[in-house]
Amino acid sequence: MKAVQIDEAKQLFIDDYPMPALGENELLVKVHATAINRADLLQKHGKYAVPPGASPILGLEMSGIVEQIGANVANWNVGDRVCGLLPGGGYAQYVSIPADLVIPIPEHLSFEDAAVIPEVFLTAYLNLFELGKLKENETVLIHAGASGVGTAAIQLVRELGAKSIVTAGNESKLAACTDLGANYVVNYKNEDFKTKVEEITNHAGVDVILDFIGASYFHQNLQSLTTNGRLILIGTMGGIKVNDVNLLPLLTKRISIIGSTLRSQTLEQKIHLTNQFKKFVLPLFTNNKIKPIIDSVYSWHEVNEAHSRMENNLNIGKIVLKID
Fold first, then answer.
1. Three-class HEC string of 121-159
2. What counts of helices (H) and strands (E) characterise the chain?
3. Which uninterrupted H or E stretch holds 276?
4. 200 close to 184: Cβ distance less than 8 angstroms
5. What percent of the chain has pLDDT above 90?
6. Cα 22 to chain center, whole Å?
7. C-alpha to C-alpha distance for 47 and 160, rounded to whole angstroms
8. DSSP string spanning 85-120?
9. N or C of the chain: less Cβ packing under 10 Å?
10. What pLDDT is recorded for position 264?
């Protein structure tokens, strides 16, 4: 088969690669589309270790058609349209995936639509609801709201009946967040989000923060949380080391800080999460209450250009690669 590979200059190219083995509990899927995630950019530059046993090929999600079925697999057929979360291997013509991680594609969605669902919607669901325990009528602060995870989180919060305050860096991104149902938007480049949170919540603070930024937002995040608030850290785009931390707010406001990555979850945890997703979130796609947000679609022959778009923070939603 063909797969995207990385040269010494950190440029991507397509070349021959061995076909993945098919386990007895797995499906072999012919990939039609995959999507770009920031973990791909980090892995390309040697800053994100591949989990043990995972494919070294980039790509944490895919959509395609089932080509072969493992000996112990039931309930799936050759020809089924599926998508799913991967530990790696999505930038390729074929992937093998545990059957319990596979999600059926709703009839009205294309392969491009389906390719952008697994990573961001499972990440948003895990962190908002499983870890963050977000409830109806609570308020969540979502940083990087125009990102893939951000656009997924805004829609899930809206459907739950909670309120969202969303940060983004330009007016087009803020407008996109508003269109998806964000209750309040903040341009972090010319507004202080802590001050805006105080204004919006009448100094009460938010219940949950979904944060991709890390160190540079840490102090403001703590100040923006209410009593029993939960800070969910899922990225460190703003650095990893925090200076002069005042621990007192953690005690007086009983704040919880939870670090979370989806890729490092065990297979059993991912299966549980996939089952929860299929039960609670997949029907929202089927009923057109939520939708995948696609920024742009590239042929995988244009993979370097697609990566450049994300590296320059130009995307609103997800960037898709067609495996054509």
1. HHHHHHHHHHHCCCCCCCEEEECCCCCHHHHHHHHHHHH
2. 11, 15
3. helix 267-280
4. yes
5. 96
6. 26
7. 35
8. E-SS--SBSEEEEEGGGEEEPPTT--HHHHHTSHHH
9. C
10. 86
pLDDT band per the 50, 70, 90 thresholds, residue 136: very high
Distance CA 153, CA 181 (A): 10
CB 5 within 8 A of CB 301: no
Contact (CB, 8 A) for 207 and 226? yes
Question: What's the confidence (pLDDT) of residue 263?
Answer: 87
Q: Which residue has the tokens 């967040």?
A: 177
Look at the block and give the residue holding tokens 């244009």: 302
Q: Write the burial class of residue 190 (CB in 10 Å: 0-12 exposed, 13-18 middle, 19+ buried).
A: exposed
Query: Any bridge partners for residue 306, and if so which?
Result: none
Q: Which of 218, 183, 221 is nearest to 205 (CA)?
A: 221
- Which DSSP letter does residue 315 get? -
How many Cα atoms sit within 13 Å of 220 on the Cβ side? 18
The continuous run of DSSP H or E covering 81 comes out as strand 81-85
Spatial distance between the Cα atoms of 183 and 168, rounded to a whole number of angstroms: 13
Separation CA 44–CA 130 (nearest Å):
30
Q: For the stretch 21-42, what's the b/e string if a residue is b when 16 or more beta carbons lie within 10 angstroms of its beta carbon?
A: ebbeebbbbebbbbbbbbbbbe
Partners of 68 in the β-ladder: 28
**Single-letter amino acid, residue 242:** V
H-helix or E-strand spanning residue 84 = strand 81-85
